[in-house]
TrEMBL record:
Protein name stated in the entry: BLUF domain-containing protein
Residue intervals passing through the bilayer: none
GO molecular function, one term: FAD binding
Coiled-coil ranges (or none): none
Organism: Celeribacter ethanolicus
Domain BLUF: 10-102
Length: 171
């Protein structure tokens, strides 16, 4: 009898939504803390970006787990108007290292992702979505190596447990 190798498909998803509260609200920390715990238990990695009223989040992991999480996120009352910008197959190896979730609030300004002069948010084309995912991955790698001045970000080499403990102290 020939044994078939089970292949679990991996995906990455990038979405944008509008927060129902102001920047640096305690619920941002709650989202981050819960994400770290949940994602670590389900093989999911990623990065959450907060810019103005927007959340951008990229998630990477097993297809069934990520799809189930995206469905849960879609009904979370802490945000609204969720828009999936990109959903595609991904390699098994995550671009986010061992991080179940990272957080940033600065790169959005650098990437002109905030509210535009005309009062609208920027259009995110599929090409731009791919660029953002690559930037998010690069940011997680550089923050892991060098740290960040932003207090909600990880310290260099900081593991999930230590990061959670420090975030709990900020709450």
């Amino acid at each position: 009898m020939r044994m078939e190798r089970l292949v679990i498909p991996y995906i990455q998803v990038l979405y944008r939504s509008l927060a129902c509260h102001e920047d640096f609200h305690p619920s941002d920390l709650d989202i981050l803390r819960r994400s770290i715990k949940f994602n670590a238990a389900h093989g999911i990695t990623g990065l959450l970006l907060r810019i103005d009223e927007q959340f951008f989040q990229v998630l990477h992991g097993p297809e069934a787990e990520v799809d189930a999480l995206v469905a849960r996120i879609a009904v979370d009352p802490r945000h609204k108007y969720m828009e999936v910008l990109l959903r595609e197959e991904a390699p098994v190896e995550t671009p986010f290292g061992n991080w179940s979730m990272a957080y940033d609030a600065l790169m959005g300004f650098e990437q002109n992702l905030g509210l535009q002069d005309d009062g609208h948010y920027p259009e995110i084309t599929p090409v731009r979505a791919h660029d953002l995912i690559a930037l998010f991955a690069k940011t997680s790698t550089s923050v892991d190596a060098y740290g960040s001045a932003f207090p909600y970000s990880r310290f260099p080499g900081e593991e999930d447990g230590a990061y959670l403990e420090r975030l709990d102290g900020l709450a």
